[in-house]
Amino acid sequence: MAAQGVLWVGLLLLGVSGVPQTQAKDQDTLQPYFQPDKFLGPWYSVGLASNASWFLEKKNVMSMCKTTVAPSADGSLNLTSTFLRKNQCETRAMQLQPTERPGRYNYHSPHWGSIHSVSVVETNYDEYAVLYTQGTQGPHQDFRMASLYSRTKTLKDKLKEDFAAFCKSQGFTEDSIVFLPEPADKCINEPE
Length: 192
Ligand SMILES: *[C@@H]1O[C@H](CO)[C@@H](O)[C@H](O)[C@H]1NC(C)=O
Ligand SMILES: *[C@@H]1O[C@H](CO)[C@@H](O)[C@H](O)[C@H]1NC(C)=O
Hints:
Blueprint: H1 2-13, H2 19-22, H3 36-39, E1 41-50, H4 53-58, E2 66-71, E3 77-85, E4 88-98, E5 104-109, E6 114-123, E7 128-136, E8 142-150, H5 157-169, E9 177-179
Antiparallel strand pairs: 1-2, 1-8, 1-9, 2-3, 3-4, 4-5, 5-6, 6-7, 7-8
The protein binds 2-acetamido-2-deoxy-beta-D-glucopyranose (NAG) (2 copies).
C-alpha cells in the first residue's frame, strides 16, 4: 500500500494528469437530465473499448450487435442483444436496475455473481450514446468498458473520433479501442 502511495505521488509530481481519474470507482460523468423514455428502442454497438482480458483476446473477431432497450417494472431497462457467435445468432437479455442517479444503472451478472455499474455518459437519443460499464469478472478481475451505441449501423466520423478521445481520456490505450464491422450474416439485419 505504502509503495503504491509513493508511486502515485511520483506520477502526480511527473505531471501525469488523468491518472487519478482513471482510478475512480465510478464514472462520474452522466448525461444531464437523462430521459430513459427517449433512450428506448434499437441501437447498434459500433464502438467498444475495454481492459477486460476476454475483450483483448476477442476484439479482432467481434462484430456489431444490435441491442433493443425496453422499459420494465420499477424503472428498469431491459436490454436484448442479438449477435453472431460461432456462426449462430444468439440473443442475450440484461436487466439494468435504476439507481438514485438518473443515467446510472446496476446490472447483476448471474455469470459472475457481481454487480456491474452501467452509466449513460452522453447521448442525444436519436443518433448516438456513450455508455461506461465497470465491474468485476471473477476474483481480482476488475474491468471497465466504454461502448458507443448508434441508432444506425454507420455513424459520423466525428462521433467516432469523439468516442476515441473519450476512451483515451479514461485511460484506455489506443489498441483497446475498436470500431466493430457489420457482421456478414443476417443476425442484425432482419426486419423486426
Ligand atoms: C425484463 O427482464 C426481466 C428479467 O429478465 C423479466 O423478468 C421481465 O419480465 C422483463 N420485463 C419486460 C417488460 O420484458
Ligand atoms: C482495468 O482497469 C481498472 C481501473 O484502472 C483496474 O482496476 C483493473 O485492474 C483493470 N483490469 C484489467 C484486467 O487490467
